[in-house]
Amino acid sequence: MNSFGHYRRWTIFLILLLTIFRFWFCTYHELVEDESYYRLWSKHLDWSYYSKGPLIAWTIAFGTAVIGDTVLGIRWLSVLLSAVTGWMLFQLGTRLWNERVGFWAVVIAVTLPLYAIGSVLMTIDPLSVFFWVLAAHFFLNTIEGNRSLQWIACGLAVGFGFLAKFVNAIELLCFLLFLLSDSQKRALLLKKGFYLLLIAFAICMIPVFYWNAAHGWITATHLQERGALTREFTIQWKETGQFLYMQAVVISPFYFLGMLSIALSSLGLLLNSTPENRSRRFALALFLPIFLFYFLLSLNDSGEANWTATGLAGGILLLASYFSEESKSLRKRIFMGIALGLALIEMILLHDAYGLGIKFKGDPANRLRGWSDLAQKVESFREPQDLIIGNKYQTASILSFYLPDRPVTHIPKTERIQNQFSFWPSYELNQESRGILITDSIDEIPDALKLQFASIEKVADFYRQDRGRDLKRYQLYRLEKPIGF
């Protein structure tokens, strides 16, 4: 069904309604620490960065240049990208199956907790998911028409996704898996177009490789440490269990179970290709490699909950195809109702549980609250000419945005490369230097500061608060009498 039917109209209405809400809601909460960190990257534009490619910095630089250096300026492109991604998901579902599948794909995506909250935050995930889905569209064009420009566009989409989140490169394996599984399309692997795709992708990698070649390949070292690959690889089922638990939480338990069960039941299709099962094989190929990659890493370390976000589009399409099947048994209707209801509840709670009068320990929305309060308390102890030093990049970054004059902030200066702050000019001490340390590591003073200041005195102990609630404890130390002068 490809006509402009009621599923298409309902999809457009849903995306427009949510986009209007998200443009309002994206200014309702304060920044998360990573957003303020990436904002600083955008003030130091470069070819790449310590832990990520450059696209997040370039995007925020553009967004703030258009709207201003505000919360809206930082986030508005995330909202716009999420809207376009939703429409592309609808188009994918329609192309692979029909408009009903496309509609359900959008419904699942907008109620999936990780996507719902990610749509109003400017992190690497909205960019990564956008280019992942865009590349999937171009790839479908290539296997249908085999035109050189479509292959190049597909490679560029994967490449720009790589510049946002390195794991987007796995999409090349997704395409490879699909082509290998399809007896009618397998020959495309030997055609010019596939190599044009790889060349286009390789061109996009140049900024990252150029920057890393000039900085000792520090990103490779960081990624090894981040994935716990620098230590001996030992199977730790507790870590794997933690990984699966986190996925169930951020995807929503019944969505997660549905995606996994459909993916597992579809594995045999990879060895038994027919035109009739091509749609399911394509969605499976988009989902399986990236989930399997992180599952294998979780045998040693659970990682972070959002790492799989990039590849969830394939899982969403698999689940949408199941939801939209004509025959629905009572058991299936119950499953769909519970899955949608639970995901919707999670989504609402993630947006602002406390505002609805619901309190629970570990509310993830607390990461978006209380920063103005923290900055106000720090400002009350700050004196002119003080160096402002956070114990870690998160603290330094958030204060650089919420302190009234948007000052230059620092982390303790060391010879060791710690994060992106290590590549920017740091403080230089003289006999007149003095500063303050703001830390959430209670009663711990960084060793570097002990070697730099003879006088380190705790002058404040307080909580970051939101609407009268204590969120996190901080301490403030006054740093005086630089050593060596």
List the helices and strands and how they pair.
Elements: H1 6-25, H2 33-43, H3 55-67, H4 71-96, H5 99-111, H6 113-118, H7 124-145, H8 148-164, H9 170-181, H10 192-214, H11 218-226, H12 237-251, H13 253-265, H14 278-298, H15 312-323, H16 330-352, H17 371-381, E1 387-390, H18 393-402, E2 435-439, H19 447-450, E3 453-466, E4 469-482
Parallel strand pairs: 1-2
Antiparallel strand pairs: 2-4, 3-4
Q: What's the number of structural domains?
A: 2
- Low-confidence blocks of residues: none
Q: How are the strands ordered across the major sheet?
A: 1-2-4-3
Helix content: 55-70%
Radius of gyration: 24 Å
Helix/sheet category: alpha+beta
Strand content: 5-15%
| Mean pLDDT, all residues | 93
| N-to-C series of helices and strands | HHHHHHHHHHHHHHHHHEHEHEE
Largest sheet: 4 strands, mixed
- Between the first and last Cα atoms, what is the distance in angstroms? 78 Å
Descriptive notes:
This protein is an alpha+beta fold. The chain has two domains: 6-355, no CATH class; 370-482, no CATH class. Helix content is 58%, strand content 8%. The chain has 19 helices and four strands. The protein has helices spanning 6-25, 33-43, 55-67, 71-96, 99-111, 113-118, 124-145, 148-164, 170-181, 192-214, 218-226, 237-251, 253-265, 278-298, 312-323, 330-352, 371-381, 393-402, 447-450, and strands at 387-390, 435-439, 453-466, 469-482. It has a four-stranded mixed β-sheet. The termini are far apart. The mean pLDDT is 93.
